[in-house]
């Protein structure tokens, strides 16, 4: 951790930060280690192996691609629906808009199981749709949309953007030119932050997905739960390692892209 030499961090604060980091990382490290030993009960004395990783990949490898694809499609759907929705809510002062904004956050407050049950009751009779990944995608969209709308909506409400939009309007710019040519570039860092949040939430979402999935539409978290429930602890821990190996490089890449865009377009 780097600190500004002009404002060194107090030692107690550094110690507390290190303690929190250790508290979070030690369980992950032990879980990963459990997936790399021959016998968890015997510990490192039993020797290291990649056997469990191989078994996990053979049984659940197909869930990796679908989880990443669902997360990418959730981001795309949020960009198409969430960004215009955020603009509309940011510019509207009507009571109906405020009510809609509150309703939009309900899937975050309500347990995912309840949201999934509502979707099943409403669309469960559409067998082709119910058996597809599209059904899970709808659930992920319902769950993640509030995060994109809230994040981007706050950026649209900045006073300087109101003045910028009014200036573009006075110069004769159409709504499309103002929205795509002026406003969206101005709030691009917020859009990137919202996209990163949506991707992360979609990849790790379990409660809602567990209710919506079928044996043919499993995702990474659902496969992880299956491995914990039906196999030995070494396989479950190896699945955790696979999850980390898949998701961490993607998140680091997205974070780097977000930082790059913020440096280039942040205002």
UniProtKB/TrEMBL annotation:
Q: Does the keyword Transport apply?
A: yes
Q: Which residues cross the membrane?
A: 12-37, 66-90, 102-126, 132-149, 179-203, 238-261
Give the subcellular location. Answer: Cell inner membrane; Cell membrane
Membrane topology, from the record: Multi-pass membrane protein
Mind telling me which PROSITE patterns this protein's record contains? ABC_TM1
* Domain called ABC transmembrane type-1: residue spans: 64-254
Keywords attached to this entry: Cell inner membrane, Cell membrane, Membrane, Transmembrane, Transmembrane helix, Transport
A Pfam family that the UniProt record links to this protein = BPD_transp_1
Keyword Nucleotide-binding (UniProt): no
Cellular component (GO) terms are: plasma membrane
Give the GO terms filed under biological process for this record. Answer: transmembrane transport
Family as reported in the entry's similarity comment: Belongs to the binding-protein-dependent transport system permease family.
PANTHER family to which the protein is assigned, alphabetical: INNER MEMBRANE ABC TRANSPORTER PERMEASE PROTEIN YDCV (PTHR43357)
Know the name of this protein? ABC transporter permease
> What is the source species?
Rhodoferax koreensis
């Amino acid at each position: 951790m780097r600190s500004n030499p002009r404002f060194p961090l107090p030692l107690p604060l550094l110690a507390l930060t290190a303690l929190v980091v250790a508290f979070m990382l030690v369980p992950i490290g032990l879980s990963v280690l459990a997936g790399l030993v021959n016998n968890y009960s015997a510990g490192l004395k039993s020797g290291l192996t990649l056997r469990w990783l191989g078994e996990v990949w053979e049984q659940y490898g197909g869930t990796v691609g679908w989880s990443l694809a669902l997360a990418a499609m959730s981001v795309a759907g949020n960009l198409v629906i969430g960004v215009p929705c955020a603009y509309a809510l940011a510019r509207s002062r009507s009571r109906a808009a405020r009510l809609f904004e509150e309703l939009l956050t309900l899937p975050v407050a309500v347990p995912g199981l309840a949201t999934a049950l509502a979707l099943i009751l409403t669309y469960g009779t559409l067998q082709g749709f119910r058996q597809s990944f599209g059904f899970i995608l709808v659930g992920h969209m319902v769950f993640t949309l509030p995060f994109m709308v809230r994040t981007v909506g706050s950026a649209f409400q900045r006073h300087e953007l109101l003045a910028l939009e009014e200036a573009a309007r006075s110069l004769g710019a159409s709504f499309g030119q103002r929205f795509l040519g002026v406003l969206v570039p101005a709030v691009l860092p917020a859009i990137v932050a919202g996209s990163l949040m949506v991707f992360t939430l979609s990849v790790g979402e379990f409660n809602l997905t567990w209710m919506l999935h079928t044996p043919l539409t499993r995702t990474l978290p659902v496969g992880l739960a299956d491995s914990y429930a039906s196999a030995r602890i070494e396989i479950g821990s190896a699945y955790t390692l696979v999850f980390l190996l898949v998701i961490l490089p993607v998140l680091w890449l997205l974070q780097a892209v977000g930082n790059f865009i913020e440096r280039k377009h942040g205002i």
